[in-house]
Amino acid sequence: MVACLFPGQGSQSPGMGRDIADAFPVAKRTFEEADDALGKLLSRLIFDGSEDDLKRTEITQPALLTTSVAAWRVLREEGGIEPRFAAGHSLGEWSALVAVGALEFADAVRLVHLRGRLMQEAVPEGEGGMAAVIGLEAPQVGSACSRAAEDTGQIVAPANLNSPEQTVVSGAKNGVDRAGALCREAGAKKVVPLAVSAPFHCALMEPAARGLDEALQGVTVRSFACPVVSNVEATPYDDPARTRNLLVEQVTSPVRWTESIQQLRAQETERAIEIGPGKVLAGLCRRIDRKLPVSATATVADLKSVLASLGA
Q1: Which ranges of 172-236 would DSSP assign to H, the alpha helix?
Q2: 265 class by beta-carbon count within 10 Å (0-12 exposed, 13-18 middle, 19+ buried)
Q3: In whole angstroms, what is the distance from residue 89 CA to residue 162 CA?
């Protein structure tokens, strides 16, 4: 049984998807559709823009969505892929919802562009932060965040539960710094500040969640071709009526990625395919369950390898 995984922010790189767009007409059309949806040449920023261009959250999010959907469409058109489940890391959940037919691609492009802008505007740049804690279990990181919040009077909380030994914390800068220090005292191997423009997946994102909730009111959510494992609950869902609330709640809630992969394994997933740029999720999956094989689709060579394994 196959599951499709879609990456989130941090997987982007300048030029991503260009070779796929050059090699497959359906991928080229996907980038053109994104340009039309936004009324701007997003593809030019993806293919020819700088790293700084792609770090702008309102660009990063639609860029990753578009690159992932382009690769997905190649797999669907050329390989006839029919996954039993899909999942996405943060922004990647939107890509998963497009892949299973729940969201129209053009709607998703516009909405994640707005999502990125709302997230950036929620906290002035420089006032928030995120840091990856390596080598400390999630409950200990959570305890450190609680104590740091008490010590500083600021918001700080676990944001991405990426693997048993990697948890990302998010919040106000002083709170994140204090939590990092406490994690080191508790035995963390490393605490790595992340180069992000806003503190995602914490209560500071509440203004963004409200704005996204309003924008989603006019969007049609359709039936799912297969269930998607939600970031918020780490369980599969396929109810269109629940989708909006889960996407809004996701903005301020932690990404429960470790539990999501464990849930896929509990559903007898035998193989996963990371659909989109980079190999971040493949690396995390190895740390969660080494017996789950994960294939990448970041390049034309990767895609052709996966297509061959699908019998295309």
Answers
A1: 173-185, 206-216
A2: middle
A3: 9
Give kind and range of the element (H or E) at residue 66: helix 57-79
Cα–Cα distance for residue pair 78/283, rounded to 1 Å: 26
Q: Retrieve residue 274's tokens.
A: 């990371």
CA distance 74 to 302: 12
**Annotated active-site positions, please?**
90, 201
pLDDT in tens, 123-159: 998 899 999 999 999 999 999 999 999 999 999 999 9
**Matching residue, tokens 């939590």:** 179
Q: What is the pTM of this model?
A: 0.97
Backbone conformation region of residue 135, classed left if phi is above 0, alpha if psi is from -120 to 50, else beta:
left
State the residue for tokens 């006839």: 80
Residue 291 token pair: 């017996």
pLDDT of residue 53: 87
Across the beta sheet with 236-237, the strand order is: 236-237, 228-229, 85-88, 2-6, 271-274, 294-296
Q: Any residues with CB less than 8 A from the CB of 88 and at least 6 apart, and which?
A: 5, 6, 7, 8, 94, 95, 96, 97, 228, 231
Residues 260-310: tens digit of each pLDDT: 999 999 999 999 999 999 999 999 999 999 999 999 999 999 999 999 998
- Return the number of other C-beta atoms located less than 10 Å from residue 218's C-beta: 7
Answer yes or no: are the C-beta atoms of 13 and 96 closer than 8 Å: no
Distance CA 84, CA 310 (A): 14
What is the distance of C-alpha 307 from the center of its chain? Answer: 23
Q: What is the pLDDT of residues 24-62, one digit of tens each?
A: 999 999 999 999 999 988 999 999 999 888 888 999 999
